[in-house]
Amino acid sequence: MIGKYIVTALLLAVLGAGYATAQESGEAKTAAIFWGVKGFPQDLIENGIPQKSESIGFTVSDAHKRINEAYVTRYGSTTLDMLNFIGIGNEKALAEVINRHPKSAAFIPLTLFSYKSKGVDSSWIGLLAPEYMADAVGLYDEALRKQWIDAFAPLHAMIESEFKPTMIEKATYASVPDEPIYEITYPVKGEIAEFSESFQEKFEEAFEGEDFIIAGYRDIKGNLDALGIENNYDAFWSYSICHFDFSNHVFNKIPRAGLFAPCSFYMYIPKGEKKLYVGYPTLANWVTVLGISDADDMAMVEEYHNRVNGLLEGMGGQKVLMTKTAVIKERKPIELPKGMLNTSYTVQNVQSADVVKQLKAKGFKVLAEHYVSEDASLKTLLFTRDDLIAQADKATRGFAAVLRVMVDDGRKEAIVLNPEYQLRAFMQKEADEGAIKKITADVISAFANPQITIADMLEKEEIGNYHFMIGMPYYDEMIPVASGKSADLLAAIKANGGKSVLFDLELSKDRHLLAVDLGRKVEKFVYKTGTDEALLLPYLVLIEGDEAKILAPKYYIALMYPSLSMGEFMKIANIPGIIENSIKKLF
User: Fold this and answer.
1) Domain end: 289, 319, 349, which one?
2) Is the peptide bond before 262 cis (omega within 30 degrees of 0)?
3) 214 and 332: one domain?
């Protein structure tokens, strides 16, 4: 802990001011590559490069050349001498990735994009970087990610060999957007072949009815079958969609936006599942990669994003929660040093339905199930019991009444908050050793073989008096968010918060503990601090007497992430203030 106290006065000034002046920083990564040459080698770009792509294993499924001429015909003018979208894919090289991570087909086919602007003596070929595509579809398994990236290396090498670029430019990004892929599911009724044909007809009719153009179709399962590759799907295909009015507006102003055109929609039915998954890369990717900031352009992007989603949902689908945290970490047991107390335990081979049953068997009641940042892999269950409530029913101790466990049903893994850690922190000097021992034993025994695998821990004797560093708040330095009669405060937060108020736990007369969903835009900070301890959300509000208050976020976040460094804390410099203001608005 000593290192945390050796800080400069400047840092303290920034922290003390609520982090408002700190800037987020992230390492710039390559989102797209553009190869350029002087002049206009049109035939090489439109024919030579695509033909050479096929010679190295890529297949051209749809080639849309000289779209600029179509703009002149339809709209009377264009800023471009050349605009080409050529769809390419390589199912043979990507078979294992497709089999194990079907969302990767959001970029199958990938657009081999080229353009030349009028009055500029240079021509360009562009591709999305494989690393960006992998991040966008949540492809974090190391082996699959390597296969994905390696599959595109020959394509990049061929472009450089054949095109002989004299200029190379890159678009960069720090992180993918909040929702890089939109996904929705539909129940499969009847025979697979008949359902697939019927759905394709409905999809085409819906989109063509809104002036979208069906620019391509790729039978991914058919291609895998033709290659003799066993696959996990009863059906798998993709569509390429574009809209001329939208593309004319955007590409004539920002030609490099053609990287994302036409937009690919993947559609697949896993074997035996009787469910069709449909997804596509959202227009938010355009904003991230291209830095679109013009108000009119942003408004148009949002309009078309909503139109596409409206069409998909209008066909009777159910939107899927995003799953952004697909990183598979190797869980190895950690030996707890003497005198230290761990924040949490990890449990394998468990799912949320089992957790609820196991907790109920120990007398606990599950109050709420919450998807942190709307992420399907971060499901937090909040639970309590009468003896917990009795312990917490004291002035400013109410936050101790609720315990937590986070379950990833996909990985069959749970992260259980250590009750002793929370009770020592929140009960302070009123911590009852007997109650702590009983409650902790009952929670831990509800799970089979809980292990310490996460290196977040504090000295046991330090927890009750914990703060992150000099100038940072302690437990009892809570933040008032509203004042008034308790009944009026309860009525206000429930009326204003609506469904974001997940429960109201009455501890005693005029003392209530509530949990609030802060929404994805706020809760996404857990991707920067680390999702292992994302069970700190949803946030709790304590109403007692004539005041509503919350734990100071600078205290609470640090308590839940005790291994967080100053640099890591600075990456979420604005979050404490945002949390405070978000909850105040509920009153």
Assistant:
1) 319
2) yes
3) no
Distance CA 279, CA 536 (A): 30
pLDDT number for residue 295:
81
pLDDT at residue 10 in the model? 32
Q: Are residues 292 and 432 in the same domain?
A: no
Instruction: State whether 258 and 405 are in the same domain.
Output: no
13 is a domain residue: no
Tell whether 299 and 392 lie within a shared domain.
no
C-alpha span between 324 and 242 (Å, rounded): 26
Q: Give me the pLDDT at residue 330, please.
A: 67
Kind plus residue range of the DSSP H or E element containing 475: none
CB of 24 within 8 A of CB of 574? yes
Nearest 5°: the CA angle 482, 485, 490 is: 70
Residues 536, 64: Cα–Cα separation, whole Å: 50
| Beta-carbon count within 10 A of 177 CB | 17
How does pLDDT run across 69-111, given as a tens digit for each residue? 999 999 999 999 999 999 999 999 999 999 999 999 999 999 9
Alpha-carbon distance of 436 to 46, in angstroms, equals 72
Query: What are 336-339's contacts with CB under 8 Å, separation 24+?
Result: 336/452, 336/457, 337/457, 339/459, 339/460, 339/461
What burial class does residue 52 get, using C-beta atoms within 10 Å of its C-beta: 0-12 exposed, 13-18 middle, 19+ buried?
A: middle
Domain range for 521 is 328-585
Q: Do 257 and 362 sit in the same domain of this protein?
A: no
| Ramachandran assignment for 471, one of left (phi > 0), alpha (psi -120 to 50 degrees), beta (any other) | left
Note the residue count of the chain: 587
Q: The CATH number of the domain where 253 resides is what?
A: 3.30.310.70
Residue 3, domain member (yes or no) = no
Residue 109 preceded by cis peptide, ω within 30: yes
Domains held by the chain: number:
2
* pLDDT value at residue 459: 95
Q: Please state the rounded mean pLDDT for residues 273-288.
A: 92
Written as six digits, the tokens of 369 are: 């199930």
